[in-house]
Amino acid sequence: MPKRATSEAKVSITMADIFGPGGMLEKCHPGYEFRRAQLEMAEMVDEAFQKHQHTLIEAGTGTGKTLAYLIPAIRSGRRVVISTATKSLQEQLFQKDIPFLRKHFAPDLKVALMKGRNNFVCRQKVHLMANQPVLRGMDEIDWFAQIRDWEKLTETGDRAELDFLPDDAELWNRIDARKDACTGQKCLQFQQCFLTAMRQRAQEADLIIVNHHLFFADLALRQDDFGSILPEYAAVIFDEAHEIEDVASDYFGRAISSYKFDELSRDAEQTLRMVNAGTAATRRPLAQIRERAHAFFEAFPEREGRFPFEPAERAAFLERNREPYDGLAAALKRLETELSALSSKPEEVLNIARRAAELRRELAFLLESQERGYVYWFERRGKGVYLVATPIDVSEILRERLFEQFDTIVLTSATLAVGGRFDYVKQRLGISGSREEVLPQEFDYRSQALLYIPKALPDVRHANFAARAAEEIAQLLHLTRGRAFCLFTSYAQMREVHERLAGMIPYPLLLQGTAPRSALLDRFRATPGAVLLATASFWQGVDVPGSQLSCVIIDRLPFAVPSDPIVAARVRALQEDGQNPFAEYQVPKAVLSLKQGFGRLIRSRNDRGVLAILDNRIQRMQYGRIFLESLPEYTVTQDLAEVARFAQEL
Ligand code: SF4
């Protein structure tokens, strides 16, 4: 099925010829099994391209989604952007599916894999640093020497090639190609820059593989056409599309963190030293920026978490902290002034002055703007303080900049529909006039999974709930011989249940936060009978096929925390609009999260296991029906003896 085939050839080959029984895929792939849902999906995507139509497809695990969208995308002959949720999904497409398609279907297919700027080394920074090393400690000296050699040989400049460099190496932050310090076309290395090369590859590509972060970072920049990274494209396919509201909200919002001020002073110091432009007058404001930023961010409450920072709260804050705020703004201004007074101003120096001006503007916006449509909030996390303005509703922005700009956008995920309908996701993302479909499940959930809802537990809000939940979990773990994920909606609940379980079960307990996520998952896979206790970050994107994961227990229906500033603002906005936020926002959002969480269990046709939800509101409350109707057709029981029988065969 060559790309850009003649129109007769295009018409003559149907998706059934490729995906159907005895079709081309079956012939070229010995392990290939015909899947009705995959064929249906390929036909829908193909039609989306032919009719220039937005299309939403809910396709469960095991459908074979990637080929079902890649083949029609190639056949369309248009330049298509494929956006996935994570870098590892991008790599998987690029390294597994694309070579297969090239080999069997489209030998001339040109594909570009694009990642965010900070994945690449900046040649100019390496060059400047080599002349004026600003390195700390023996490790940095050693790493930098290796990076210099590598930078001369690598074709991509992608950090993923540097297996000796630890994930948290601070050196990388000083030499990566982030936008902050980039002088673009004025840079002496622009022609040899790895980003320029990546852009050129994308210019020539038929398919461009990105992740949602890069896609929305680009879409947000496209407005002023400065710094955008993607070339022109004709259509977009979003895989794991349930994540795009959150990612778009981040990139269409505005934010600064306490780290930005330290980075500015550090980069300025380094740049001035490297271009021999440092004077006492330019160094003074740098020290002031550091000190005053410290004093300013110290003024925020010490408690970790996210808190509203709406106009009234900001005014009160400023009344108490006017001095450090004005002092910080003045130090930034002074740096701009001192830099512009320098007799020689290389581009790097001008760039520092621009960054100082931008930080000053952002600071003023986040503290003083009255612009409606944003929710203003701050967060203290670890050593950092973040000030953020997030759009309350991204649907209008996405409608204008995405769904009205392109005529073919395909969204797919295992969790898009609520009660079989797409109203929620369409409303949140500003989609209208689309075609949508929930595809039949590939797995026999009725026989592969048993959903247990205990009868006798107290309401999740009852003080005794954690103690009783821990007992129930222990009983279930005995039946499934460990091998479970226990997923919680809060850290506090996770920690309390962990403490209680410690003396009750003989299985190794792994706790989120005690090691990096990937290390915990590796340990879970390698430890017989392991039980992992975790919160939100393990609810999605985690894949443990086979019997090592035979049970997923969820403590409560995953409603978003109502006090979270973004959730609270969205609820308020819907109320003001005369809508019912509980029915139209909170319940559907929680339904999709629950589907994601339970989706961890059955990853293949051979997987079997027990699911449990300890929150009996799913049966007591009227809205519980929507949760149950939205889940795959698991067999449901309230009888622990039935779980025991089922678990014997696991
Ligand atoms: S163009 Fe920007 S990222 Fe590329 S080498 Fe120059 S400064 Fe670095």
List keywords for this structure.
globular; binds iron/sulfur cluster; 18 strands; seven-stranded parallel sheet; alpha/beta; 650 residues; single chain; Rossmann fold; Four Helix Bundle (Hemerythrin (Met), subunit A)
How many helices? Answer: 27
Bound molecules: iron/sulfur cluster
- How many separate structural domains? 4
Q: What's the CATH class of the largest domain, please?
A: Alpha Beta
Shape: globular
Topology:
Elements: H1 7-12, H2 15-19, H3 24-28, H4 36-51, E1 55-58, H5 65-76, E2 80-84, H6 87-104, E3 111-113, H7 123-131, H8 137-153, H9 170-175, H10 194-204, E4 207-211, H11 212-222, E5 235-238, H12 244-251, E6 254-257, H13 258-274, H14 280-298, E7 305-308, H15 311-340, H16 347-368, E8 374-381, E9 384-391, H17 395-403, E10 409-413, H18 423-429, E11 435-438, H19 445-448, E12 449-452, H20 465-480, E13 484-487, H21 491-502, E14 509-511, H22 517-526, E15 531-534, E16 551-554, H23 565-576, H24 581-598, E17 609-613, H25 617-620, H26 624-630, E18 635-637, H27 640-648
Parallel strand pairs: 1-10, 1-11, 2-4, 2-5, 3-4, 5-10, 12-17, 12-18, 13-15, 13-16, 14-15, 16-17
Antiparallel strand pairs: 6-9, 7-8, 8-9
Helix pairs in contact: 4-5, 7-8, 11-12, 13-14, 13-16, 14-15, 15-16, 20-21, 23-24
Bound molecules: iron/sulfur cluster.
